[in-house]
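The aim of this short unit is practical: by the end, you should be able to scan a pair of folded records and say something sensible about each. We start with the first protein, listed as its amino acid sequence and then its structure tokens.
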Amino acid sequence: MFTKFLIVFFVSMVPVLELRVAVPLAIGMGLPVVPSYIICVIGNMLPIPLIFFFARKVLEWGQNKPIIGPFFRFCLEKGHLGGQKLKEKAGKGLPFALFLFVGIPIPGTGAWTGTLAASILDMDFKESVIAVMCGVVLAGVLMGIGAAGILGGVDAIFSIVTI
């Protein structure tokens, strides 16, 4: 069981996948929900300080390099565009907008993108981490509810088929 928890922990740290994949994976692997959820949130939040303080610098450094440049430029543009949209729509409610941006589990949003946007927008570290953390908690709950419902529905269908 420890190995399964490690897998879920590391999956929740991967950009794009994050806990949007890790929580349903944990439920699908039959792990206990509450400990899995906590491990997913911790795994998803662990890289956040590094992203906030260093990702922007690394991306700016690498955007003109021959092989990695296009990907780094894409990341900078995505973070900048996401940040600008948040800033325009939110005004002084930027932390709340960041919370919603991270918390609503749709492709292209999440802790990594939200933190990069906060860094590009020069948001306050503490304020942005709290907003991202709350968003991660919300996204985890939504994904858990969705995964439990989908997996429960699939299980019900197979139990009817095998009768």
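Turning to the second protein, read its sequence before its tokens, just as you did above.
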Amino acid sequence: MDNKKLVETVAANLGRSTDDVSKLLEAFAGVLRTRCGEMDSVIVPGFGTFEPKKRNERVMVHPSTGRRMLVPPKIVVGFKVSNVLKTKLK
């Protein structure tokens, strides 16, 4: 499902306009970016937890050229599904 389909589906379920839902999803993504950038978890009850994880810098070997490259440290976001959602999906 792409972003357009997601916005249309949520808008239809909530009875809202697609512009409102699009702004809501953008605001949620902004909160995720801000909080995870500060290394805070974001918990959505009944859905799951977004957890930031810090990856250290490492040396990587390019598979086709064999050159060694230094990959800088970065923050990645992991997602854990809540038990409520997990049981509903089973």
